[in-house]
TrEMBL record:
Name the record gives this protein: Cytochrome bc1 complex Rieske iron-sulfur subunit
Rieske domain: residues covered: 240-335
Family: Belongs to the Rieske iron-sulfur protein family.
PANTHER family noted in UniProt: CYTOCHROME B-C1 COMPLEX SUBUNIT RIESKE, MITOCHONDRIAL (PTHR10134)
Pfam families (alphabetical): QcrA_N, Rieske
Transmembrane regions listed in the UniProt entry: 58-79, 85-116, 168-187
Length: 352
């Protein structure tokens, strides 16, 4: 251990003298400790009118922040989503996005600028030097810290500058409302849309590949056929949203191989219809194993047994695939006998 690592009070007198920092550098002590420069008072420390001007400036910044937050909320409620404006040199951009970004930026900037201006002009700027101490503070040190905190709070004039305190609380209270308003951008509540699809009684099952209605003889044992509701076309504006819930997979099993009684009752001559949408995260199921009657989701390997109510036998899926009750119409085409009795796809908070 060198003499630099030994506390000064434990060094011999002659070494302690050399160990101490000096105010003027020389050959023996090349590192000088000039100490703190004399404190210079700011104009706000000596002139109460200047302090009042600074207080009004800080309050103005906090007030502008509040007004900007209010403007953010108004813009979010009033400006149409499809309205665009020209901003040089960017070009045409969304009027709502531009206004929301501008107002929120001004609100946050004014809070920061107000806090900085308050600290630089009104809070105490006296520099205080303290000796380094051990990590575990003694009771005396803790008492000193508490006293320093109380003294700092007093010198910040937080209790005396009521205008600053009031406007700062107002700005800090309003800014979080911007985040609350943004929650509306998640879109309208789904209502009962998650519980219903395009399937209804009398809707024919249409082959996704041929776009032709399906007859029982079109579905062979061991084959996997994908179907959609009659009338749903890829050119429809809402096709992706509708097929995401209505996509169906058709499998023909030997009736003796169907273990679940309800599944057998809801089938037609061993033809069963289940939702194609995995109940884990909504991936489309496309892999079928004829010998075991299992279908596999390619995303996370959830496996369902189509001979036993499409229950989950492996993987992270939380529940079985919903089954669609089917039959045949007067012309011999496969048709739905109603909608799914439970929501398709992943579970959600209202699922019973």
């Amino acid at each position: 251990m060198s003499s630099q690592d030994i506390p000064e009070e434990n060094l011999p007198a002659e070494q302690a003298e050399e160990h101490r920092a000096v105010a003027v550098a020389d050959e023996q002590n090349p590192f000088a400790d000039p100490g703190l420069p004399p404190h210079e008072h700011r104009i706000q420390d000596t002139d109460e009118r200047a302090a009042k001007r600074s207080e009004r400036m800080v309050a103005l910044l906090f007030t502008v922040s509040m007004l900007a937050t209010i403007a953010f909320i108004v813009a979010y409620l009033v400006i149409p989503n499809d309205k665009s404006i020209f901003v040089f040199p960017i070009g045409h951009i969304s009027a709502m996005n531009f206004t929301l970004g501008l107002t929120l930026g001004v609100a946050l900037f004014c809070i920061g600028a107000g806090a900085v201006h308050w600290a630089r002009t009104l809070m105490s700027d006296v520099e205080v030097a303290d000796d380094r101490h051990a990590i575990a503070a003694s009771p005396e040190v803790r008492a000193k810290v508490h006293e320093d905190f109380r003294q700092g709070a007093k010198e910040s004039a937080f209790g005396r500058r009521k205008l600053i305190r009031t406007t700062m609380f107002g700005a800090l209270a309003l800014v979080p409302l911007s985040g609350v308003m943004l929650l509306g951008g998640l879109g309208p509540a789904p209502g009962t849309k998650l519980r219903h699809t395009l399937w209804a009684k009398g809707k024919r099952l249409v082959n996704m590949n041929t776009n032709q209605p399906l007859r029982p003889e079109d579905v062979m044992v061991g084959s996997l056929t994908f179907a959609k509701p009659d009338g749903l076309e890829e050119t429809d504006e809402e096709f992706q949203n509708d097929i995401a819930k209505a996509a169906l997979m058709i499998v023909r099993l030997q009736p003796d191989n169907i273990k679940d009684k309800r599944e057998l009752d809801w089938s037609h001559e061993g033809i069963v219809a289940f939702s194609k949408i995995c109940t884990h995260v909504g991936c489309p199921i496309s892999l079928y194993e004829q010998q075991t009657h299992h279908v596999l989701c390619p995303c996370h390997q959830s496996t369902f047994d189509l001979s036993d109510g499409a229950r989950v036998i492996f993987g992270p899926a939380g529940h079985a695939l919903p089954q669609l009750r089917i039959g045949v119409d007067s012309e011999g085409y496969l048709q739905a006998l109603g909608d799914f009795e439970e929501p398709v796809g992943p579970a959600f908070w209202e699922r019973g």
